[in-house]
Amino acid sequence: MTESDTYDILSETILAVLIGSGPILALALGVGLVIAFFQALTQIQEMTLTFVPKIAAIFLGLLAATPFIYATLTKLSDRVFDLIASGGA
């Protein structure tokens, strides 16, 4: 296994993590912005108002995005296991 092969595996791993976590992070960011605008407009500064909707949205987003995350990680692990089986790693 050469240095370029190692670099390729590491870059694919980082990309898979970013792609897998991207939808959930974007959802949390969007919900956080909506709540921040709501708090700014109504001047309600309740701390639990930020956590409860964000946690609920992240939970629902995880339920919806689980097949996508699973497919992304399965593709990466299949590639790595194929490299191990072929003696490339």
TrEMBL record:
Q: Does the keyword Transmembrane apply?
A: yes
Q: Which InterPro entries match?
A: Bac_export_3
Which compartment or compartments is the protein found in? Cell membrane
Which terms are listed as keywords in the entry?
Cell membrane, Cell projection, Cilium, Flagellum, Membrane, Transmembrane, Transmembrane helix
Gene Ontology biological process? protein secretion
A Pfam family of the record is Bac_export_3
Recorded superkingdom = Bacteria
Annotated membrane topology: Multi-pass membrane protein
Membrane-crossing ranges are 14-39, 51-73
This protein's GO cellular component annotations are: plasma membrane
Q: Which family does it belong to?
A: Belongs to the FliQ/MopD/SpaQ family.
- State the name under which the record lists this protein: Flagellar biosynthesis protein FliQ
Organism listed in the record: Limimaricola hongkongensis DSM 17492
